[in-house]
Predict the 3D structure of the following.
Amino acid sequence: MDCSLYSKSKDSFQKDPFIVDFYGICIVINGKGSISLDKNIIPFSKGSLIFFQPNQVRQWHNLSENFSGYFLVFENEFIETFFQDSFFIYRFQFFHNAAVSCTLECKNNFLSFLIDLCKTVNNELAKLQEDSHHLLRSILYNILIRINREYIKQYGLPTNLFQNNIGLQLKKMLEVKIRKYQRVEDYADFLKISRAHLNKISKKVFGLSISVIIKERLLTEIKREILFTNKSIKEISYELNFSDISNFIRFFKKYTGIKPGEYRLKYTK
C-alpha cells in the first residue's frame, strides 16, 4: 500500500497512455484537469475523487499548475492478505461500478476528513511500530467504507452488495475469467447455482440481468484490445474465445453499432 502526496511537477504524470496492475484512488486537493480511462475523458477539480481499476489504460490531460492530490495505491494481493478477505476489494461499489461513474465529488468537510486520514497514514508509514498494521488497517477501513457510503448515497445505488457473497464472487470471477468464459451457464456452474437463481441475484444486487453484466464486461475487454494493442481483429476474436471472426464482428456491431475495424479507425486517430 502507498499513500502519497503528488503535485504536477512529479514524474508520475506522464503524457503518454499507460497501464498499471493495481487499484487506486486519487483525492484531488487543488487544481483541475482531466484523465482518460479506456478512452473515456473524465474532468476533475478540487474535491474530486477518481477511482482506478487494474489494467485500465490511463492518460492525464491539461493539469493545472497548482494541481496536487493524494494517491492511495494498493494491489489486490496486498488487500486480500492485509484484510484476510479474498472479496474485500469487490465490496466497494466505487471500484466496480464504472458504468455509473469513476468519480465522486466531495464537499469541503468530507474532503478535509479524507486529507486528515491520509496524513495519518503517511505519518504511520514513515515511523512504523509493532502495532502499526492494526492502526493502518482501521484507517483504511474508515477511508474505504466512508467513500463507499458517499458513492452509494450520491448515485442512489443499492446497499446490498457489501455482504452478498454470491454477488461478490461473481464480480471477482468476471475479472479473471471473462476472456475465456462468456455464457451465463458458465458462471452459474462455477457458483453451483441455477441460471434463474443467478439472474435473480444479479438483478437484486446490480440492477441488471446476468447476461447484460457479462456482455458489458466482455465489451470492455474487447475495446481495450482493439484500441490499445496492435493485434488483428482475427487475433482478438480468437483470444477472447469466439468460435469464429464473423460471430465476433456480429456481437460487437450489435452492441456498439459499428464493426471492430471501424471502431479502431474512429477512436485511434
Notes: The radius of gyration is 20 Å.
